[in-house]
Design goal:
elongated, 8 helices, 73% helix, two-stranded antiparallel ribbon, mainly alpha
Amino acid sequence: RIVTTGAGSSASCRHRFSDFGRVRAELIRGSPGVVLPALPEKQVLNRFAPEFVEKRGKMLELFMHKLISHPIVVASSILSNFLDWPEQLVGAAKAISCTVQLPPLELSDAGDPLSDASKGVMALHDELGASRSTFKSLIGKQHDTSTAVFELSRNFTELSNNSLNTVLRSHLVTFADGAQGLAAIIRQQSDENGDCALLVALKTYKMLAYALHEQLKARQKLIAAIDKANASLADLQTQVSKMSGRAGKEKKVAELDQQCDAIKEKVSAMRDEHSLFTRTLQWEIERFHRAKNAELSSALADMAVRNRDIVLREHAAWSEVVANLSGLEGSVVQP
């Protein structure tokens, strides 16, 4: 169930998962150049498993947030119809869209301003993905470490119960208790990192980088279509030039002229689309980097603070173990 509130009004609707893919495709066709994140991949096996359903729900929530917060897409009738918005919400969305100022199309001697953009965007996509994978691996290792430390605590507790360790019993129990507390701290670090803003931001901007790549590829296809149409036009014009003035070719020349006019009209429309496509993509790229820089810098700072605090707690826990061991009879530990 999707609930939208704003402008003193609200709306709710329900949709199947396949409906989200359809509306994304329609929005992209209707607004060439806009960048929308991909939907979570379908899963055939275990698609009703609670963990998968929860994960897909979060991804759909992120997807809808990106749609509604997009100042161009939010004013599309495709979106408002999909969400069953009343007039108040539609009007508020259109007011937001009016604030968008696309950059002018600036052609330079260097050529296409976006000629190398796709390569750079895909490199960024891969680097964000690699960073996220490494971070998830670190989180997994932290989880394994917490399990190992807890197991070590249990091992020392068993050692303390052995009649051959009577002298060491208090030392073993003290260390086991301290290790159990440390295991809990390390597990908390793993859990907090697994649910931190950095992990979400890395995934979000990896998805958006790929969406940018998709639109850059679509723009290249449009350029190829323009070039192909221009080549066809040049061929037809050559035929007209050869036939013009020749007796009996008047009808054929007229037909070719009509075809030339149709192609010219088509090329003109495609050039207009290309201009809007380019300006929208330039605006999207600038918007993408501005948001990425802000969210990642904030997420990195948050992660650093959280892990610093955890490490300080670990240090305090170890210090307490040292102090407790040093206070035992026969201890050689220096506090």
